[in-house]
Design goal:
The complex is a heterotetramer.
Chain A: H1 2-19, H2 26-51, H3 60-76, H4 81-103, H5 108-128, E1 138-139, H6 146-168, H7 171-181, H8 183-188, H9 193-219, E2 221-222, H10 224-227, H11 230-243, H12 249-268, H13 273-287
Antiparallel strand pairs in A: 1-2
Helix pairs in contact in A: 2-6, 2-9, 2-11, 2-12, 3-4, 3-5, 3-9, 4-9, 6-9, 7-9, 11-12, 12-13
Chain C: H1 3-32, H2 39-57, H3 61-88, H4 92-114, E1 129-132, E2 135-138, H5 139-161, H6 163-173, H7 175-180, H8 185-210, H9 218-232, H10 239-257, H11 263-277
Antiparallel strand pairs in C: 1-2
Chain D: E1 2-8, E2 11-17, E3 26-30, H1 37-45, E4 52-54, E5 56-57, E6 60-61, H2 67-72, E7 75-77, H3 90-100, H4 105-118, H5 134-147, E8 152-156, H6 164-179, E9 183-187, H7 191-197, E10 200-205, E11 208-213, H8 215-220, H9 222-229, H10 231-242
Parallel strand pairs in D: 3-9, 3-10, 7-8, 8-9
Antiparallel strand pairs in D: 1-2, 1-4, 5-6, 10-11
Helix pairs in contact in D: 3-4, 3-5, 4-5, 9-10
The chains are: A mainly alpha, B alpha/beta, C mainly alpha, D alpha/beta.
Family (chain C): Belongs to the binding-protein-dependent transport system permease family. LivHM subfamily.
Main location (chain C): membrane
GO cellular component, one term (chain C): plasma membrane
């Protein structure tokens, strides 16, 4: 019964989103495209950060790599963009899978920093490889109306949300939640946690890269500082935590709220928009510390682990 | 199971609807405001996303002030004379937080919600890239002031114009100056972003073809805070001159560390840095003698009807904003002025007509010099000056006859200062 | 000039600048498991304060340093007591979010207060250096290294031998047991954050003396502190010194051998390697 | 298990441990606090690697296999401090183990139902792990281990903190398991439990095995009593025995 209502609500939300372009308000579509993009990115973060309990600070690496690879293949090798996009998504997923193996052995803050380093190192390498555009980046042909990109981003966001829903209600989802609760115990009941974590990381990478390839075409110009901006990862994290980590709707809700708040702040104030946004985030943390959906589960069973003593 | 309950989804719906409503409401409010302005029928509104906050806020403010000065001067003159009627200029700024993403959405917002059809660009090449795609797809003209990356104009866009020459041309005048001062070996050090790379490549190619010996060339990551080891290396190569192409902080850091490391050059020159008043303020007497590739100085012998001479422009600027203008501000004012000229030539503020007028402006003579608008929207023919810091002020030392102002080339060693 | 001798010295001195900037970050992380994303903006704010005191009252930064330390200590203490403590026990990542918001607020406030202009604290000795056996030793960087060593020793003595320091260490090791032993956790946290803020301010003044800054300069400083803290190891008083020296030397030597453009590849590549091989850093405790 | 040794830093925790377990038997492992019991379980379960020696399960060497592989071989452990999945419901906790144990679909659900019944947890099926009481969590741990169809079960103080009634119930469960042919290594502080169910008892003291044999025999060894109860107690008792005034009865 409650499930049926949920499906109905999901359908209504998707339908409303599909019909949004009928307003033919291009600004609204532009903003909505950005929100859909971040909803997809936050959902991708949620897979590894929210469900599995591994707080990645480097997911922007996959977004950036997807964008850069797709652009490089289409500009330098003259591949059709759709082929380039597919290759870029697969490549980034593989990248996530391979790097996930060593990185996912780390826990807590150490994992966070390692992923941050991963993103920064990826950017540094891309900046120095001419085939990948170097520091100069790529400019891609301008394509049709903004509606295409809205639907593409919305499609990825829906895919991400639906995927999250399916995962949460599957055995795989249980495995991820078990890893988040207690990884050793999960291993002790026979779960190959390395494989499960790496799969989640790779799925997260694939979704991030999908957004990246669409973003490159949407922006039509990309350069490393823009597509590897660590702030993008921070936004994924902030949106997910704000909406409710480990939930299906949380990342989407977070993306909608932050996206709209950003636009409102920029419209209301000429030179204090960051201040307003910052205060907004602080207010949410102070007054809704468990995320808006309120079912936020504290990372790793609610215990604050990893505190280390200062010693001489 | 509490993972996804009906109540929460309901809440989610309600909150999103509320927010969308707020957004739409806010947007339409803005639109209303502007239509009421436009209904006065004697106002021309021009949009400009700009960097009021974020990493580019500093240069963003200079560009903002440059645009604003043109608006204020024109309005003080009674407005822009178009087809015998004077129109007030209304510039609408929106903070992009220095992020290209926001430039897209802000430009879109100004076009579709606020009904703005003419644009001046945000600062910095990546931001111009982003904003110009929106302008292009809506077929509204945008004049860029704040980025001369060649790539912007190689995309075949029809609605993007610029008041800046290509980045690759910035260093030509500096090298011409050095050539006449007995400099033979030069070291190039540049940041890894688009603008710095283009400027450096242009400069290095110019140096090699003009008989210089490039003894060192390296790229560093943007935002580098320690370049002392590069300076140590350059000292070993015995370079006569150091040419740095990067950002403001890096230029200051290079001068600081050259002194700290006691690395002496006969000349030091930078693209971004010396032209801004903050450069001499930050470095004090250590800035003395440093050369800066500029696009404009108040000493240049050009003038136009809006601002008068370059010197008068500088006076007006100082009166309004309290500081000396540097080229960022002047080039922004020039971009705004180009927009004014095009509107006058078109005889209307219709975006298509203004675009066609811009494309057909040909050679124009403004307070920042004479230049020709190319078919791809870039400009050609601007004579680029060079400045030198003397007694804490930027003094024009190039082109001739200003070369008589050159002092201290070769620079005295740090120990003798 | 000895090329390699000078380059090694450059690396060591840059290590001092990097290390002193990470001292506070490491302390807050080690004791409270708090990653302060506003760390860099705290430092920039301190640099502005030192600059304002120099320009308006003519007080040399080294004279105003104790005052700035105390001001930041007090501000940090109250910030932790009134705001951060409210969420610090709720969830690890809520504090991340909170400090992320704080960073936005601080960076924007600084633009409103000081404008977006680039500034540096330009004293007579800011660009001076000592010459020693053909090697140049920039005074400010040398002082940064000395301060880092002295502060590390003081911090170690404080944590090891003072009553309060022991309470802080006990809290860091096992919060629950510390509370059962009668230690007032909120007060210890406030003290730690205050101490951290004071140390951040010291690092910020040194950054202002050795570099140009603007309100937006905080982000890279935070990332730098991250790297140094991990390289040196979380949870030791000597971590920032060790991490700073490692990173400084690595960047100096790497930028000459491979070219400066590869500095970030080397830095972050090494960071990844260290994390994978020895996640507790060079001086950190053995893996639990 | 051959000549297994483990040290942490400079501290030698286990030294030269060798023993093998008979299929279908219950072996008790006792020893004072800090004797190395939990370390031993960690080594067998794969959570830790021995510095020296080898561990075999049937004829397969397991001391370098990952924990999850060992678990899938049927060598299943529980934890001294209960480690259950807080974010999953009780049923999901058990079902997860059943799944990795190789069951699917209807069979899996039936098995889960059966185990919940055996451990008397069926009323709590939908409760999230974090909301269960401690005895429930302990039983859940056991239930989860059972769902893996263990051949060898390592039970690390599964009964600590239970009241007498719960204790009896737990012992009952272990007996049922033995009758099904599950081999067990039971670590317990409570002598009553060990004595009641073990076919054989191992005594660990300061990292070495000091006794191995049937429970009645082991408990009578003076070195065991010394390790457990302290030298003075043993001396007193010996004096008392010499005086002809009877001994202790188990503990």
């Amino acid at each position: 019964m409650s499930k049926r209502v949920n499906y109905a609500l999901f359908a209504v939300v998707v339908l409303a989103a599909l019909l949004l372009p009928l307003t033919s308000n291009d600004y609204l579509i532009q903003v909505a495209t950005g929100i859909a993009m971040y909803a997809a990115l936050a959902s991708s973060w949620n897979l590894i950060g929210g469900l599995t309990g591994y707080p990645s600070f480097g997911n922007v690496a996959f977004f950036g790599l997807g964008a850069v690879l797709a652009a490089a293949l289409s500009v330098n090798l003259h591949w059709p963009y759709i082929d380039a996009a597919l290759a870029a998504v697969l490549g980034s997923g593989l990248f996530g899978l391979v790097l996930g193996l060593p990185l996912l052995r780390l826990r807590g803050h150490y994992f966070s920093i390692a992923t941050l380093a991963l993103a920064e190192a990826t950017m540094a390498v891309v900046t120095n490889v001419n085939f990948l555009g170097g520091g100069q980046g790529f400019s891609l042909p301008l394509l049709g109306s903004g509606k295409i990109f809205y639907y593409l981003m919305l499609g990825i966001a829906v895919l991400a949300a639906a995927g999250t829903y399916l995962i949460i209600n599957s055995h795989f989802g249980n495995i991820l939640l078990a890893i988040k609760s207690d990884e050793l115990a999960a291993q002790s009941v026979g779960v190959n946690t390395v494989l499960a974590k790496s799969t989640a990381f790779a799925l997260s990478a694939v979704l991030g890269a999908m957004v990246g390839v669409v973003y490159a075409l949407w922006q039509s110009y990309i350069d490393p500082p823009t597509v590897f901006d660590p702030g993008i990862t921070v936004f994924m994290l902030v949106m997910t935590l704000m909406g409710g980590a480990g939930t299906v709707a949380g990342p989407v809700l977070g993306a909608v709220i932050i996206g709209v708040l950003t636009q409102l702040a920029m419209s209301f104030s000429k030179n204090a928009s960051s201040l307003l946004l910052g205060l907004g985030i602080m207010a949410v943390v102070l007054f809704l510390p468990r995320g808006i959906l309120g079912v936020h589960r504290p990372a790793k069973g609610g215990e604050r682990r990893g505190a280390r003593p200062l010693r001489g | 199971m509490v993972r996804k309950s009906v109540k929460l989804t309901g809440l989610f719906m309600a909150v999103s609807l509320l927010l969308v409503a707020a957004l739409a409401g806010c947007g339409s409010q803005g639109a209303k405001q502007n239509t009421s302005n436009a209904s006065a029928a004697d106002t021309i509104t021009i949009g400009a996303p700009d960097a009021a906050t974020g990493a580019l806020a500093n240069e963003g403010k200079l560009v903002h002030d440059g645009y604003t000065l043109w608006q204020d001067v024109v309005n003080k003159q009674g407005g822009l004379l178009v087809g015998g009627k004077r129109y007030k200029i209304n510039l609408v700024f929106k903070d992009d937080q220095s992020k290209p993403d926001n430039d897209k959405s802000l430009t879109e917002q100004m076009i579709t919600q606020d009904g703005i059809k003419l644009f001046l660009s945000p600062y910095a090449s990546p931001n111009i890239f982003a904003a110009s795609t929106v302008a292009e797809s809506h077929k509204v003209p945008m004049i860029a002031a704040g980025g001369g990356a060649k790539k912007i104009f190689e995309r075949g866009y029809k609605y993007i114009f610029s008041s800046y020459p290509y980045s690759g041309e910035y260093l030509g005048s500096v090298l011409d100056l050095l050539k006449g001062r007995g400099i033979k070996t030069v070291a190039f050090l540049h940041a890894d972003d688009l603008f710095s790379q283009e400027a450096d490549q242009g400069g290095e190619a110019y140096a090699k073809s003009h008989g210089f010996d490039v003894v060192y060339s390296a790229q560093y990551p943007s935002g580098a805070t320690d370049l002392s080891s590069q300076l140590t290396q350059i000292a070993q190569k015995k370079a006569d001159a150091l040419i740095g192409t990067g950002h403001f902080e890096e230029a200051v850091q290079l001068v600081k560390q050259a002194k700290q490391m006691n690395v002496n050059f006969k000349a030091m020159a930078f693209t971004v840095g010396p032209t801004m008043p903050a450069f001499a303020q930050n470095l004090g007497k250590d800035a003395e003698g440093v050369l800066g590739a500029s696009l404009w100085t108040p000493d240049l012998p050009y003038k136009d009807d809006v601002f008068g001479t370059a010197a008068q422009y500088a006076a007006l600027y100082k009166q309004s904003f309290g500081t000396e203008p540097d080229y960022h501000a002047a080039m922004a004012s020039a971009a705004a002025e180009m927009m004014g000229l095009a509107i006058q030539k078109a005889g209307s503020a219709d975006p298509q007509k203004v675009r066609d007028a811009l494309a057909g402006l040909g050679t124009v003579h403004l307070f920042d010099g004479s230049f020709t608008i190319e078919p791809n929207g870039s400009i050609k023919g601007l004579v680029l000056p060079v400045i030198q810091i003397q007694n804490g002020k930027a003094v024009t030392v190039w082109p001739a006859p200003f070369d008589k102002n050159i002092k201290d080339i070769p620079l005295p060693p740090w120990s003798k200062r | 000039m000895h090329l390699w001798g000078q380059i090694i010295v450059n690396g060591i001195l840059q290590g001092g600048v990097l290390g002193i900037s990470a001292l506070a970050f490491s302390l807050q992380w080690g004791v409270m498991d708090l990653i302060n994303l506003a760390h860099g903006s705290f430092q920039i704010l301190a640099a502005y304060l030192a600059l304002t005191l120099l320009n308006s009252l003519g007080i040399d930064p080294f004279l105003s340093l104790p005052l700035i330390f105390l001001l930041f200590f007090a501000a940090g203490y109250l910030l932790q007591l009134w705001i951060i403590n409210r969420v610090i026990s709720a969830n690890l990542f809520m504090t991340l979010l909170l400090t992320f918001g704080m960073d936005f607020v601080l960076a924007n406030l600084m633009i409103l207060l000081f404008s977006a202009d680039y500034k540096s604290i330009n004293t007579g000795y800011a660009n001076a250096s000592l010459h020693l056996a053909g090697i140049e030793l920039p005074v400010v960087r040398l002082l940064a290294l000395l301060f880092l060593i002295v502060l590390s020793v003081l911090l170690w003595l404080f944590l090891e031998y003072s009553r309060t320091g022991r309470a802080i260490r006990a809290t860091a090791m096992e919060r629950e047991s510390a509370r059962l032993m009668g230690i007032k956790i909120p007060a210890v946290y406030a003290l730690t954050f205050g101490l951290g803020s004071g140390l951040a301010a010291v690092g910020g003044v040194f950054f202002g003396l050795s570099n140009t800054f603007s309100p937006a300069a905080g982000g890279p400083l935070t990332v730098g502190a991250f790297v140094v803290t991990i390289l040196g190891g979380v949870g030791t008083s000597w971590g920032p010194l060790a991490g700073g020296l490692i990173l400084g030397l690595l960047e100096a030597v790497g930028s000459v051998v491979f070219g400066p453009t590869y500095v970030n590849v080397i830095t972050f590549g090494l960071l990844l390697l260290v994390l994978i091989i020895r996640p507790t850093g060079v001086l950190g405790r053995a893996a639990r | 298990m051959r000549e297994v040794g483990k040290s942490f830093g400079g501290l030698q925790v286990l030294e030269g441990i060798s023993f093998s377990l008979t299929e279908g038997s219950i072996t008790g492992l006792i020893g004072p606090n800090g004797a190395g019991k939990s370390t031993l379980v960690n080594l067998i379960g794969g959570a830790d690697r021995p510095n020296r020696g080898e561990i075999y399960f049937h004829s397969l060497r397991v001391d370098h296999l990952p924990v999850w592989r060992i678990a899938r071989l049927g060598l299943v452990r529980t934890f001294q401090v209960t480690r259950i999945f807080n974010d999953l419901t009780l049923r999901e906790n058990i079902r997860l183990a059943g799944w990795t144990g190789g069951l699917r679909g209807r069979k899996l659900e039936t098995e889960v139902d059966g185990i919940m019944q055996l451990c008397e947890l069926e009323t709590k099926a939908g409760v999230p792990g974090r909301d269960l009481s401690l005895p429930e969590q302990k039983r859940l741990q056991l239930a989860r281990a059972l769902a893996l169809k263990p051949k060898l079960l390592l039970l690390d103080e599964v009964m600590a903190g239970l009241n007498p009634a719960e204790l009896d119930r737990a012992i009952q469960i272990l007996r049922v398991l033995r009758d099904r042919g599950v081999t067990m290594l039971v670590i317990e502080h409570l002598m009553r439990v060990i004595m009641g169910i073990s076919d054989r008892v191992l005594v660990l003291h300061q990292g070495s095995l000091i006794a191995d044999g049937p429970p009645e025999q082991v408990v009578g060894l003076s070195r065991v009593q010394e390790a457990y109860l302290g030298r003075r107690y043993v001396q007193n008792r010996e004096t008392a025995a010499a005086n002809g005034s009877g001994g202790v009865s188990g503990c």
